[in-house]
Design goal:
Layout (H helix, E strand, L loop, with lengths): L1 H5 L1 H18 L3 H15 L1 H16 L1 H10 L4 H14 L9 H18 L1 H4 L10 E2 L3 E2 L9 H19 L5 H18 L4 H24 L16 H18 L21
């Protein structure tokens, strides 16, 4: 296969990491996959930081973007043009929030090929090793075998939770697609090796924990001041105040000159 040929260097790297964790650290094959997730997510920290900054930027400009959508809700083409101009003006890249997911797809596919030939290429070199996880599933068997469906249920819950936390600032259509996609993906994962689902489950748990921590540490943006329908604009208020002052000045009676108090002289003053 062409894809397998392209990902051969990645497959060799993943095989080396798993065997090193098994030989050097002494982890079982299943826990080596969990440790692989930790290593991958640590390497993706720069992209994760960029993702968090992008989400914060989107959250800060959410009221302005909502105003643009409301203004051009009857003209989708104009709305898209205005949104793209707004993104460019404010240096917003909505795709940055998906970078960690996109970066993990090659690893996911490469691990699929590694586990597919695990029984033939790797396991014969370690005949005494175990491929079970928690005594419930075998990472080399299909997910639909044995306790594998339980793993699928956990995967679905974790995927929905992580997708919900990641899609807080996305457009409604994008958010709906991100939430529906995990459910639509379930029929395809039934024939995947259980070790692959264990990898994705661990990734989702990491993403969920990261999302909860991010929501706690990220300050909430200040909402714009609410305008009441009864509150007139400032210009109208100023003109109304000016008119009231002018009307009061016109109604004020004219000022009368002060009265001069007359002092009466007494008749017959004293003589010297």
């Amino acid at each position: 296969m062409i894809v397998a040929g392209i990902l051969t260097p990645l497959e060799d790297l993943l095989t080396w990491i798993l065997t090193s964790l098994h030989e050097t650290v002494g982890l079982t094959w299943a826990w080596s996959i969990v440790a692989l997730v930790v290593i991958v997510r640590i390497l993706l920290v720069p992209l994760t930081v960029r993702q968090i900054h992008s989400m914060q930027n989107l959250q800060a400009h959410a009221p302005e973007m909502k105003a643009i959508q409301q203004r051009y809700k009857h003209d989708k083409q104009r709305m898209n043009q205005e949104m793209m101009a707004f993104y460019k003006e404010n240096q917003i890249n909505p795709a940055s929030s998906c970078l960690p997911i996109l970066a993990q797809f090659p690893i996911f596919i490469g691990l699929f090929f590694v586990l597919r030939d695990f029984d033939e290429e790797i396991l014969p070199l370690y005949p005494a090793s175990s491929t079970e996880w928690l005594g419930l599933i075998d990472i080399t068997e299909d997910t639909k075998v044995g306790w594998g469906p339980l793993l699928i249920v956990l995967y679905g819950i974790s995927q929905l939770t992580s997708s919900y936390l990641m899609s807080q600032n996305m457009q409604p259509a994008q958010r709906a697609m991100l939430l529906i996609l995990p459910i639509a993906f379930i029929p395809f994962v039934l024939n995947f090796p259980s070790g692959l689902m264990l990898y994705w489950l661990t990734t989702n748990l990491w993403t969920t924990g990261q999302g909860l921590i991010t929501r706690r540490l990220t300050p909430k943006p200040q909402p714009p001041p609410k305008k009441s329908s009864r509150t007139p604009p400032k210009s109208e208020t100023a003109s109304a105040d000016g008119a009231a002052a002018k009307s009061a000045q016109e109604k004020k009676p004219p000022a009368t000159p002060p009265r001069v108090r007359k002092v009466k002289r007494k008749k017959g003053g004293s003589r010297r």
